[in-house]
Amino acid sequence: MLLGVFGGVFLVTKQETELKEGILEAIDRAKALSKPVLVSEVQQINHIDPLTFFTAGVEGFFGERFFWKDPSEETFIIGMGICNQIQSDQAAGRFFHVENEWKRLIKDAIIFNRFNLNGIGPLMFGGFSFDPLKEKTKLWSKYSDSLFHIPTFMYSVIQGKAFLTTNIICTQHDDHTLVEIINKEKNALFSSIIDAKKQDGHQLVKEIEINPAEWKETVSSVVKELKQGPLEKVVLARETRLIYDKQVEVENVLELLLKQQQDSFIFAFESNGDCFIGASPERLVKKTGNNLFTTCLAGSIARGKTKDEDQMLGEELLNDPKNLIEHQYVVQMIKEAMEEVCEEVSLPKETNLLKMRDIQHLYTPVAGVAKEDTSLLLLVDRLHPTPALGGLPKQEAVEKIREVEELDRGFYGAPLGWVDYQDNGEFAVSIRSGLIQKDEASIFAGCGVVKDSNADSEYIETKIKFRPMLTALGGNNK
Ligand SMILES: C=C(O[C@@H]1C=C(C(=O)O)C=C[C@H]1O)C(=O)O
Ligand SMILES: [Mg+2]
């Protein structure tokens, strides 16, 4: 295999590439089946800093990258280039539709992977909008309601080991020159790792909270309705728009998130020039074989300035009836959903605290063993939106949000993550997030409104929830 001088430093592989024979075989198969065939090859490679890899793609792959890190830092997945995408604006059966498309692609794929790990080989990364029936604004015009990318090059660090997956779609019209094309692209990418450098930083010039007074009025009117029932909880969200002196560099924002929000999922998902980015503490669901993990996260309070104050605030949260109810709705719904698809479900009796840099939450982790044939996207379908982002009852709460919320949530508060070809994967609830659009950005925050909510306190809660993104985006760290 031909390697660039610099590329060779990083692309020292522990095996010969099988891609060439795979491509030839796939072209034959594409001819026989009269449909495109995916070839995927996994190589173990030397370790590269994940952010450096992401940054190296800025020249060749801008707009076609993604970045993912889980809170335990067991899994980093960085994608470059779009080998294939699954996208749709269809609302009914959207999770099922994506799963079917994915299975169809995988069924005839030629895969070279000798490592028994999750998060390598053919994998799709992406997510879903919060509510496909919400009227669309131009804010989210670059993202379909279901959008997944299968990357051309994917760098994964799994439990400290580094891998490169190369994915290629072969059609009946392709020939052996495809091998050279892909190797050239690979070498160019690995050569640019050496001179991957960041641009001069962007400066925030203006911060515009979108209609805060109206938002508070909406909260108050929903509280009135909650007092009458049958609605019990509705999550209401809002937006702050940020204006910059020049284009926002996604790499800089990611770097700050990685430093400042280490215990979070960190994600970035580029589409058609925009970038959805965030640092979420909330897992929707993780699947490893038949083992499922999900999280109930709802109920919030500020962090203290001193250790004592922080502990006091934590105690206050653990004993606050309004927040406990807000949390309990989530536990109740997630437990029921898990029991439907699991042989067994376990969760702690006591509610715990999850402390992030800017905020603390009530937290209940839930684990389960899935029944046969329970797929990851089936779980996403069952869980989304949990009452942490939607409300209770689910359907009525989503309809209420659709009716009264000014914000077009798009991908905010929705499932974002990855699924590999063996149906392992993980989705976060994409909160503490923002959408970068050239020299502007929108950030989003919401909170659980129950009948004991007060509009001013909920407003302050959303202020705190803006902080992780606002800080990383150069805003005031207040
Ligand atoms: C809606 C958000 O967060 C959710 C709402 C919470 C609450 O109201 O207490 C807590 C955690 C999240 O489930 C957000 O961060 O935007
Ligand atoms: Mg709350």
UniProtKB/TrEMBL annotation:
Pathway named in the protein's UniProt entry: Quinol/quinone metabolism; 1,4-dihydroxy-2-naphthoate biosynthesis; 1,4-dihydroxy-2-naphthoate from chorismate: step 1/7; Quinol/quinone metabolism; menaquinone biosynthesis
Reaction(s) this enzyme catalyzes, per UniProt: chorismate = isochorismate
Lineage of the species this protein comes from: Bacteria, Bacillati, Bacillota, Bacilli, Bacillales
Entry-linked PANTHER family: ISOCHORISMATE SYNTHASE ENTC (PTHR42839), ISOCHORISMATE SYNTHASE MENF (PTHR42839:SF1)
Known role: Catalyzes the conversion of chorismate to isochorismate.
GO MF annotation: an example: isochorismate synthase activity
Protein family per UniProt: Belongs to the isochorismate synthase family.
Protein name, per record: Isochorismate synthase MenF
Cofactor: Mg(2+)
Domain Chorismate-utilising enzyme C-terminal, residue spans: 213-465
Binding site for Mg(2+): E326, E461
EC number: 5.4.4.2
Organism: Cytobacillus citreus
Catalytic EC class: isomerase
HAMAP family documented for this protein: MenF (MF_01935)
Active-site residues, record numbering mapped to chain: K233, E282
Alphabetized InterPro entries for the sequence: ADC_synthase (IPR005801), Chorismate_C (IPR015890), IsoChor_synthase (IPR004561), MenF (IPR034681)
Pfam families (UniProt xref): Chorismate_bind
Keywords for the protein's UniProt record, in alphabetical order: Isomerase, Magnesium, Menaquinone biosynthesis, Metal-binding
